[in-house]
């Protein structure tokens, strides 16, 4: 709350897990009333490729290099899960020119900013040519994105997948790792959300395994249509080798 009250700060990332829901609601209410943005709670943060990262997103330096996060690409990415955002940065870098910006909104029931908040923001960033969304079962956040698509508020291609289709295999209600990932009624199921997104015009694969190829197809189509100019490749600075690894490989020794 102290950070939100600072007039010079516009975006606050709350990495902490287990924030009481009443506290989260107060923070969200204050942020919205004062034109501030909260990423989280329970988030790993976000990254703008080639610029900066907030929180501990994107993993190790080696992973940042592997995922081409040292220079901007053309894809805007948003997910609930932080761990899965790292996986998707890698997937997206393999089949496209990489991420322009990536955000994990966190897995709590009341996120400070929603999937659709960031998709609508990406829609207004000229450098972002397509969006990838990774949702999950539980709650109704994905339906605000469905409404935005139906109302024509999003003009760029959206590739989406909602995880948690396996919940139907269990006989009772399942609580997954995130507080918000609870298999409630039929509307909150991953299958219903995926179908709603598909009906609203998003590109939705048949499974998580097929997500990579669908991202690739959507990106290549945009390239063919001339909507994505080639991104100039940048050579990242050489990364010093980890000391323990260097000692093991016999490259260095203690004096």
Structure description:
Residues 227-255 are annotated as: Disordered. InterPro entries: Cit_synth/succinyl-CoA_lig_AS (IPR017440), Citrate_synthase (IPR002020), Citrt_syn/SCS-alpha_CS (IPR033847), CoA_lig_alpha (IPR005810), Succ-CoA_synthase_bsu_CS (IPR017866), SUCC_ACL_C (IPR005811), Succinyl-CoA_synth-like (IPR016102). Residues 229-240 have a biased composition (Pro residues). It is found in: Cytoplasm. GO terms for molecular function: ATP binding; ATP citrate synthase activity; metal ion binding. With 255 residues, the protein is an alpha/beta fold. It has a single domain (43-228), classed as Rossmann fold (3-Layer(aba) Sandwich), CATH 3.40.50. The chain is 34% helix and 15% strand. It is built from nine helices and eight strands. It has helices spanning 2-5, 21-33, 61-66, 82-95, 115-123, 141-150, 190-199, 211-224, 243-248, and strands at residues 11-13, 37-39, 45-48, 52-54, 75-79, 99-104, 130-136, 158-163. Strands 4-3-6-5-7-8 form a six-stranded mixed sheet, with helices on both faces. A two-stranded parallel ribbon has the order 1-2. Helix 5 packs parallel to helix 6. The protein is globular. The model has no long low-confidence stretch (mean pLDDT 91).
